[in-house]
Design a protein that fits this description.
Structural class: mainly alpha
Helix content: over 70%
Largest sheet: none
Strand content: under 5%
Order of helices and strands: HHHHHH
Number of helices: 6
Radius of gyration: 14 Å
Distance between the termini: 21 Å
Number of strands: 0
């Protein structure tokens, strides 16, 4: 099933933010992440964007792609946005360096098969 045009914009936003985090964290360590407020805030904000975009993807498109951990992505966004005092750097680091590269691999073929009409994010 082809995603709805609105969903494609959200999927593109997710992919773009995930790629950004992967580039940002490449060749970095957890210690460097913990020591850099700028890096932490950048990664957290990008993960927040991924979660918000995932939340907006329609139920039909989510159902068509059960390999994507929609609930976990949205839940992580909720923690960053609303429970920021509970953020654990090691968990965010694991998301950034393990889960987001996987997300890029899952989203890339979806976007390549169905690019947004204007080629940009919503």
């Amino acid at each position: 099933m082809q995603p709805e045009p609105e969903d494609l914009k959200y999927l593109w936003d997710m992919l773009d933010a995930a790629k950004f985090v992967v580039r940002l964290t490449a060749a970095r360590t957890l210690q460097e992440y913990e020591d850099s407020r700028e890096l932490r805030y950048s990664v957290e904000r990008a993960i927040e964007i991924i979660g918000e975009a995932a939340r907006r993807v329609s139920a039909g498109s989510r159902k068509s792609h059960p390999e994507i951990q929609w609930n976990a992505i949205v839940a992580t966004r909720h923690i960053i946005a609303h429970e920021y005092g509970d953020i654990q750097n090691d968990k965010i680091w694991r998301i950034a360096t393990s889960h987001l590269p996987e997300l890029v691999e899952l989203l890339t073929p979806i976007i390549e098969r169905n690019p947004p009409e204007d080629g940009t994010a919503g």
